[in-house]
C-alpha cells in the first residue's frame, strides 16, 4: 500500500518495539495519548520504573499527575526521534508523532491551546492532537495560526470534520497573511471509524429492532468515504486519518486515498499476513442499501453522515464523543495510579 498508493501508514502507538516494526513496514508516523502511555508503562514497567523514581527525585514538588504527563512527553520524544528521517524526507507532511492534549481540558480553548503550544515545542516533528469539541475547534484555528500542525481527534462525523477543516483553513490563511511558513505543516483530521461502529452496536442492543449485523461494520467506512469526497471537492488542505480499527475494511476500503491509516501493531500484523488484495477502493461506494438502512434505523448515523447533522454546540454531547472522552479521562486516572504505586508503594 505504502509503495503503490498515496495512502500513508502511521502506527497507533508510541511503543518503540511496535513503532520499529511499523517503520520497517513503511510507517511514517505514530501517536501517543494517556491510554497508550498506560499500556506502554504496564508492558515495560521494569524499564520505566527507574525513570519514574528519578523524576520523583528531580521534581520533589510534582504531583503524580505531573509526573505521569512528563512520562507521556518523554515517550513521545523518544518515538519522534525514530520518525525524524521520514520527517525530513516528507518535509513535514509525515514523520510526525501525534501527542494528545490533556483530554480533561476539552471545554476550554485557552487551556487546550496552551497545552498544544507546550507540546509543540517538545520536538520539531510533533503533531498535536486537539479534540473536535466546541472548544477544540476554536483552539484548532489558533494553534494552526501559530504554526502548530494539528491532528483533530475525538472525531466521528462529517460535521466535525468540516468544522475542523474550516478552522484549519482559517488558521492557515491568517498565517499566510502574516507571511509565515505553512509549507512544512502537516495537519490531519482523524475519524475514529470503529468507535462510531461501536456506538451503533450499543444502540442496537438497546432497541427492539434487528438489522443485518454486517451493516454496522460499514458505518465508519461510509462516513470516511463521504467525508473524503467532500474534502477533495472543496480542496481542504488537511488530510483525513482513519483510526480505531475494528475490521479490515477500516484499512482495505480506504486504500488509494491521499490520507493516513493508523492501525495498532496487532492489526498491522494481521494485514501483513492476510491475502487481501491491496488495491484502490476509496472511490468504491458503500452499498446504498446499507447506507439507507443505517440512516433509517440509527439517528446518530444520520447525524454523523449528514453535513448539517450536528451543530458545533452539539459536538460535546454526541454519544461517541462522550464515550471516548470518558475513556481518555479515565486513562489519566489510571496513569496517576500507576505513578502513585511507585511514589507511595503499598506497605502491605
Task: Describe this structure as you would to a colleague.
This protein is an alpha/beta fold and 348 residues long. It has a single domain, classed as TIM Barrel (Alpha-Beta Barrel), CATH 3.20.20.70. The chain has 15 helices and eight strands. An eight-stranded parallel β-barrel has the order 1-2-3-4-5-6-7-8, surrounded by eight helices. Helix 8 (158-177) links the parallel strand 5 and strand 6 (188-192). Helix 2 (34-43) packs across helix 3. The relative contact order is 0.15. The mean pLDDT is 97.
Task: State the gist of this model.
With 348 residues, the protein is of the alpha/beta class. The chain has a single domain, classed as Alpha-Beta Barrel (TIM Barrel), CATH 3.20.20.70.
